[in-house]
Amino acid sequence: MALSRLQRLLLESDDNGNGSKNVKRRRFLTKMARKGAGKDEEESGTAITDRETLEELSHYCAFANAAYGWKSFAFCGWLHLGGNNRVLLKSTGIERRDIVTTNWHSKANRPAYYVVRNRKRKAIVLGIRGTASARDILTDLCASAENFLVEDDHDIGDIGEGEGSITPPLLAGRAHKGMIDAAKSVARMTGKIISDELDAHPDYSLVIVGHSLGAGVAACLAAMWSRRFPNRVRSIGYASPCVFPSNCTTDFESVCVSVMGEGDPFATISLGHLADVTKALSCLCRDKGFRDEILQRTDVKLLADPTDISQDNYEWCESAMAALRKEMDSEKLLPPGKVYRMSGPLIDFQPEGNASANGRVETRLQAVDAKKSCNELRLHARTLDLSLHVPFRYQTLLRRLASSDV
């Protein structure tokens, strides 16, 4: 409870101040909190408004969710009659002749996937399914970090044969072991097919998409193939889990994009995050006086209205959190590549009359630094709220952003 209270007071990152008293003071304290927590000062004016970016993210979210097949409709509570391929056609709008290959059955370290042609955007799309079975959970649980290679010909498979196609192996870094193994499995199954498709369509690119586990595997595969298909491959992941360590997560910003929903529990959960929380809690358990003073300085009334905090009290809490962070030094994995944070309500209630935006939570998309935004696991009542992770939430909010006047 002591750790949770400190985090709530110091890591408040989305406070608009609408309808609250002493708005200037709240904003000032929020800035101080972000500075103390190592966060960027992300004001509401930094939202991504580029129409092309919003439309692309919304467009490929449908492809990512289609990898679940009929289960994608079940997640949304919709009744669907027909097989997985029919869901794929209905969700993405492609024609049956553009389905290249599908494999709707997963195994441990080999998720389900499909390959299709997206003629509208001139792309070969490899969709990788997220966690939807016990076998997929086994992949998730292989959560230790492992080195991986770019252009590992032995593991990836014999693809792109021809003069000048062989490139020397390059050590890229470390990543989630289960997702690395899954990426290698998908590469062996689809590498030759995708290479042939790209040869047959020289003006097409390769877009690898996925949600949850599928997003993590997509990022690993895009990193592995970044030299195999130079300037022709990229991944777009939704609700991406933690995949790369902090020292290499930005190395693949040119080929990996991650969209994380605000509050999504899997954006800040890795073995390193859990180890850090354990270390902080152990420190608080050992020092009862320290723990009691935190609880005293962060009482319930103060948490209800942080604007009442005194300067001295705030600085003490900031120092206390800094002391705990010195213990939190484990290797953590983070969402991969360029990271966008999506926020907003699932149901968009329009204000009545001239009520304008007061009391209304805006839907927005922001570019964030994963090293600062996802470096710490926050403990609160909704830490493991899976409703913030479901595919339907991502597709709904991104469609709203793409269709709105920004």
Description of the structure:
The strands form 3 sheets. Strands 1-2-3-6-7-9-11-12 form an 8-stranded mixed beta sheet, with helices on both faces. The protein is elongated and about 70 Å long. It has helices at residues 2-10, 23-37, 51-66, 70-75, 84-92, 134-141, 153-156, 177-200, 213-224, 271-286, 288-297, 300-304, 311-325, 370-373, 391-403; strands spanning 99-103, 113-118, 123-128, 145-150, 170-176, 205-211, 233-238, 244-245, 256-261, 333-334, 338-343, 364-368. With 406 residues, the chain is of the alpha/beta class.
Question: Which terms summarize this structure?
Answer:
406 residues; alpha/beta; eight-stranded mixed sheet
Estimate the global geometry from the Cα principal axes: elongated
Order of helices and strands: HHHHHEEEHEHEHEHEEEHHHHEEEHH
| Rounded Rg | 22 Å
Helix content: 40-55%
Q: What structural class do helix, strand and pairing data support?
A: alpha/beta
Mean pLDDT across residues: 80
Discrete helix count: 15
How many beta-strand elements?
Answer: 12
The fraction of residues assigned to DSSP E strands is 15-25%
Compute the separation of the termini in Å: 40 Å
Which residues sit in consecutive blocks of at least 5 with pLDDT less than 50? 13-25, 35-45, 152-166
Looking across the biggest beta sheet, what order are the strands in?
A: 1-2-3-6-7-9-11-12
User: Can you summarize the main beta sheet?
Assistant: 8 strands, mixed
